[in-house]
Amino acid sequence: MSWAVYPPAGNAVDLQSSAFDFSSVFPDHQLIWLQSGTAALAWCLCQHRLLHPHVENPEVLIPAYGCPDLVAAADYAGYTPRLVDLADGTSEYDAAALAGAVTEHTLAVLAVNFLGLAANVNAIRGLLPEVSPIAIIEDNAQWFPEPDRPVTNEADYLTFSFGRGKAIGLLGGGLVATRVQPQPMDITPPETDRLWPVKARAYNALLHPLMYGVVSRLPGLSLGQTSYHALTGLVGMDPQPRAVLGANIERYQRFDPWRERCFDEALAGITSVQVPGLTTQGRRTANRGRLLRYPVLLSNREQRDAVLASLSQAGLGATAMYRHALPDIAGLEGRFDRTRVPNARQFADRLITLPVHEGIDRAAVARITDAVARQLN
Fold first, then answer.
1. Which pLDDT does position 281 carry in this prediction?
2. What is the pLDDT of residues 300-350, one digit of tens each?
3. Residue 217 domain-assigned?
4. Do both 275 and 360 map to the same domain?
5. For residue 280, is pLDDT > 60?
6. What is the domain range of residue 26?
7. CA–CA separation, 299 and 279 (whole Å)
8. How confident is the model at residue 216 (pLDDT cuts 50, 70, 90)?
9. Burial 180-203 (b: 16+ CB within 10 A, else e)
10. How many domains does the chain have?
11. Of 252, 270, 287, which residue constitutes the final position of a domain?
């Protein structure tokens, strides 16, 4: 086992302030700053409920594979979350399942950008009734607009997260962008965490493989484990990470995703590998932007576990992401019918993610692709 362990995601926090023009990224949008991406999503749900008080017992449709914070946001906003299965072998909704899940109580649909693979908002819209109060909320917690992939006006609300390990990670913070004038809502004023600069520097140090390797072995930390945590309130974003967000956006926009291209080329020749978001010819599809992690679907859970064990033993930053579909996540047991989302559960069984952050050099890319090839060829 290697003592050096690459983290699965995360770029260093730039602590410089910047006079960044946010209107260049979000033209004609109202911006609401909150403490997390979960809070941003909950704000959208609460806001849309204010606009449609006549809809009783509101429901929100959620993809059955994803972060349990999606459920936490729904719970906080007073919605009943209804899980919808994925299309086989993708992170997209199954069209028939989504259309069949819509009821008179449906008030929102979450269109989740998974690791940089954008949901097809127009296709989702086409499955909904032509005249309805249903909002589409585009959850971009794992992606941020790029110079050549700006935000679109297809969804009713856009949300973003600046938590640890996100596309732009500031250890916390969330953003809503909407073209609709917001209704008044109670948001607790932000507090300044005086230790935030210290935490940011500690986080930057933690990204070094030797440091991450030591910390990841400490008992009781549970790094990377996924479980449900309730959202307890809406709070404004700490002004310190917000002040350096512009500099980190500028750094993100300069980032060269060459690591993704290396994995594209290396994995194209392995027949047992399926890469969501790529055509069979290995070309980028329209829904794929810059990736937070590089997703790979293997043939089955046994093969996934073997490949993951090999990569983990070498400390190469591979993960099984959430590892389970939402009905099987710790803290959500018994809330959802596991039998109704077979594709999502198979997706969870087959998925691994490979690191593509700035700490991965060409030698690490070569070690990762060699380890995968040895297991599968």
1. 36
2. 999 999 999 999 999 999 999 999 999 999 999 999 999 999 999 999 999
3. yes
4. yes
5. no
6. 22-252
7. 17
8. confident
9. eeeeeeebeebeeeeebeebbeeb
10. 2
11. 252
Of 252, 275, 303, the residue that ends a domain is 252
Beta-sheet pairing, 157-161 with 174-178: antiparallel
Half-sphere CA count of 124, side-chain side, radius 13 A: 27
Residue 16 lies in a domain: no
The arithmetic mean of pLDDT across residues 95-104, rounded, is: 97
In 3D space, the residue among 257, 253, 254, 291 whose CA is nearest the CA of residue 275 turns out to be: 291
Same domain, 46 and 180: yes
Cα 259 to Cα 262, 264, 286, 288: the distances in Å are 5, 9, 19, 15
- pLDDT, residue 195, reads 97
pTM: predicted TM-score of the whole model, two decimal places? 0.94
How many angstroms separate the Cα of 317 from the Cα of each of 86, 126, 162? 26, 39, 21
Q: Which residue has the higher pLDDT, 288 or 167?
A: 167
- Has residue 220 got a pLDDT over 80? no
> SS in 3 state form for the chain?
CCCCCCCCCCCCCCCCCCCCCHHHCCCCCEEEEECCHHHHHHHHHHHHHHHCCCCCCCEEEEECCCCCHHHHHHHHHCCEEEEECECCCCCCECHHHHHHHCCCCEEEEEEECECCECCCHHHHHHHCCCCCCCEEEEEECCCCCECCECCCCCCCEEEEECCCCCCCCCCCCEEEEECCCCCCCCCECCCCCCCHHHHHHHHHHHCCHHHHHHHHCCCCCCCCCCECCCCCCCECCCHHHHHHHHHHHHHHHHCCCHHHHHHHHHHCCCCCCECCCECCCCCECCCECCCCEEEEECCCHHHHHHHHHHHHHCCCCCECCCCCCHHHCECCCCCCCHHHCHHHHHHHHHEEEEECCCCCCHHHHHHHHHHHHHHHC
- Same domain assignment for residues 222 and 300: no
Looking up residue 60, the CATH number of its domain turns out to be 3.40.640.10
Do 267 and 244 lie in a common domain? Answer: no
Please report which confidence band the pLDDT of residue 38 belongs to, taking 50, 70 and 90 as the band edges: very high
What the block records as the tokens of 30 is 């109202």
Give the C-alpha separation, 211 to 5, whole Å: 8
